[in-house]
Amino acid sequence: MVQQADLDKLTTLARPHRDMINIMPLQTGSILTDAARRVLVEFGDGYSVCDFCQGRLVDIANPPVRQFVGEMLPEFLGCDCATLTYGARDGVFMVIHSVAKPGDVVVVDGNRHYSTAVAAERAGVELVPVPNSGHPEYRVDVEAFAGPIRDRKPSLVILTYPDGRYGNLVDASRVGEIAAEAGVPFLVNGAYAVGRMPVRMDALNADFIVGSGHKSMASAGPSGVLGMKAKWQDVILRRSQLHKSKEIECLGCTVRGVTLATLMASFPTVVERVKQWNEQVAKAQWFSTAMEDLGFVQLGDKPHLHDLMVFETTALFDISQRVRERGYYLYKEMESRGVWGIKPGQTKALELSTFAATRDQLEQVVEAFKAILEKYA
Question: Which terminus of the chain is more solvent-facing, meaning fewer CB atoms within 10 Å of its CB: N or C?
Answer without folding.
Answer: N
